[in-house]
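ok trying this again, last paste got cut off
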Amino acid sequence: MNETIAYLQGSAAWGGAVVGALVAGLFLFIVKVRNRAASARPAAARPERAERGDPASSIVRDLQKTVSRLENDNAALSNFMQLLPEFTRRMNSRIERREIPMQMVRIVEQLFAPSQILIFLLEERINKMALVKQVGLPAESIRQVQFEFGEGRLGWVAQNGVAMDLDDFIREKRLTGANFDVPGHFQFTVELCAPMIHEGKVRGVISAGGIKRHYKHEKAILSLIADLGSIALYNHDLFNKTQEMANCDGLTKLFNKRFFMERLSNVLLEASKGHHPFSLFIFDLDHFKHYNDTQGHQAGDEVLKATGEILRDTVRPDDLAARFGGEEFIVLLAHAPKKGAMQAAERIREKLATHPFAARESQPLKCVSLSGGVATFPDDGLTSADLIAAADAALYRAKKDGRNRVTASEPKYFSDEKDDIVYHPQSGSGRKD
């Protein structure tokens, strides 16, 4: 007998089969015992025995519950394993940033069938979590939803970097006295919550509430989804930074000419289809060679860097600024007609002229200034080459008329070369010279 037991213990697989057979045999034996006992006792006595509690019946109920729970866990695991490969493939592919939360919401809906899903991502500028995707919140309550680290249940998860469920929140509140009640969070149903962590940095938080499908290891499942989402965010940001480095001028941190021309072609195509205007603003720095010769090339580089900063701080998010070569710059002003483009160009000119550059008084105009030209699609050209040529011609007119000014190109069928509009800083309006 001992040798038999030792043999069975030596084989894990065979041992598991034997245990399964024993459990099945025990189950059948109990069923037979119950059937025999039921047929042997009088009918009147059966309810009385049932009231006292039948041990065999209790064992059967426990086994049924165990089998049901195992079947549910197995179905849940099978469902998760079917969804995971496709979700992982999408997260590891070239995916837009806004698509990442959408994919996370989709898999959480399929797995947990919750009534509410919240996805917050870190706004590094303000060091707060901002709601970027949600399901189940009232429409009027989703504008500018943010929370700080440590604030409420979501903030606690973000601050401590651990997944939590309802039992965890109750236990934490009882043991440490943590305050999870935040008035502004009353609309959040946080039953299951996980941080989005990559390389030790919390990049967001995902929460599910009103869950209809629960799993044995649901915290681990949600944490895996959160981690894959954070990896996708990291990869997206890394790719964008790499692409930006390839497309940017190293000195000014503006886009380079090659990338600008590619984008200009796309914008031109969209404008042609949508029949909406856009403008180009081309300018160069007045007497830049004089500044370099008198102050040195290092000081000249500082002027170029500061010009790049001024452009980045002044143009709108949809606009595109680039270094076109040397001390020449170009700005694509999206959806801007001629008047609006002239106003935007004048703001740039004014900021540059009033910037406290070193030794600016040594310049011929007593400041570091620009001369620029503006051309607008479709009035001044229907191709990239025509628009750039029109803006460039207006730039040279500005230089000829005294520099430190912006000139707008006019359609040739409305005026000749002498009728270009010149923007005068003193009057704040344009007139024909």
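PB: full thing came through this time. Residues 55-91 form the longest helix (37 residues).
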